[in-house]
Amino acid sequence: MTELAAYACQPERSRGRRHAEPETPAHAPSFRNPHQRDRDRIVHSTAFRRLVYKTQVFLNHEGDLFRTRMTHSLEVAQLGRSIARALGLNEDLVEAVALAHDLGHTPFGHAGQDALNECMAPYGGFEHNLQSLRVVDELEERYPTFNGLNLSFETREGILKHCARRNAQAIEVHEPNGIAARFLNDTQPSLEAQLCNLADAIAYNAHDIDDGVRSGLLTLAQLQDVSLFARYHAQTLSEHPQLQGRRVLFETIRRMLSDQVYDVINTTRDALVQHSPASVDDVRQCPPLVQFSAAMFDESRALKSFLFRNLYRHPQVMQTTDWAREVVRELFAAYLAKPQEMPPAYAHRSDLPRAVADYLSGMTDRFATREHARLTA
Ligand code: MG
């Protein structure tokens, strides 16, 4: 790894873990820093393996080549690491946050999350970011003496990218001046956390075009309305007039991705020069520094709203998401009425609605579908 800049999260100055653990275990020499250790814990977790069978936009059974939460997370990690390397940021931390950022997602993508949020409205709601944190803090059962993965402060901070004030206050009670404090005192997270947010958006905007065209729900003609796409599409065709089929799409997306990556690197470099943070503590007091240029920000937002109108709200996508919502609603009601249908660890909890949400949100698309058939037959 290249040398870390002064404004990066320095692994040796980590703010530590919730449960005390020696960073140098007695049985093995220490060749991993805390953030590398976090990444390894995430990769070995149960929730991470489930991502491969969770919907990103297209339901898992609709085709083998569409993105899943797993491949999406890997693409976010790849983009994040590239940008981190260029900026002298902590690549390992970026990778850990990127791989964990969607661990709390329900089955069936946003439809599943919306439905579960509605079901949980009387009981404090359901929010996938907060759930990702619950997965790594509480729900993974892999260690003899504590719940969760016991990740470092910096990785947990990056995972909690949004948080309602009410939830931030609740976290602050258990963890004073902890990862939720920034939502109450309006400060920023580390640059690595800021970067993962942006890498997430760059990744899904690009791969949803790819999946949208592959599925036949989006056409290249439609995409000419999106300047960020149309520009590189025209460039590709003018440099390679003979090129046809998928390679035109792939080359266009490749150029789109790399231009956004360079835009973030250059704009962020300028912001770093302007604000010259000398430590991660300085970074927290600055405005957000990892950013697109104003022009790229507008283009990225235009692409996102194009995808909303034409892909996420496409009648064919809506039809499957309506079905998914019903599955989640009916499963929630079924477990609430008959907790004994869940494994004992969930069935016997005193906070039953939250136990149902934890159990249900951990399911893969396929398992939820099977459970739904079993309980509503
Ligand atoms: Mg994501």
Largest sheet: none
CATH architecture: Orthogonal Bundle
* CATH level 3 topology: Hypothetical protein af1432
What's the end-to-end separation, in Å? 55 Å
The average pLDDT score comes to 94
Number of strands: 0
CATH superfamily: Hypothetical protein af1432
Number of helices: 19
Strand content: under 5%
Order of helices and strands: HHHHHHHHHHHHHHHHHHH
Shape: globular
Level-1 CATH class name: Mainly Alpha
Bound molecules: magnesium ion
Evaluate the radius of gyration.
21 Å
What's the number of domains?
1
**Which consecutive residue ranges, at least 5 long each, have pLDDT under 50?**
none
Structural class designation = mainly alpha
Binned, the helix content reads 55-70%
Topology:
Elements: H1 34-43, H2 46-50, H3 69-87, H4 91-100, H5 109-120, H6 128-139, H7 153-159, H8 165-174, H9 181-185, H10 191-215, H11 220-223, H12 227-239, H13 246-275, H14 280-285, H15 294-312, H16 315-337, H17 344-347, H18 352-361, H19 365-376
Helix pairs in contact: 1-4, 3-4, 3-10, 3-13, 4-7, 4-10, 5-16, 5-18, 7-10, 10-13, 10-15, 12-13, 16-18, 16-19
Bound molecules: magnesium ion.
In short:
With 377 residues, the chain is mostly helical. The protein has helices spanning 34-43, 46-50, 69-87, 91-100, 109-120, 128-139, 153-159, 165-174, 181-185, 191-215, 220-223, 227-239, 246-275, 280-285, 294-312, 315-337, 344-347, 352-361, 365-376. The protein has one domain: Hypothetical protein af1432 (Orthogonal Bundle).
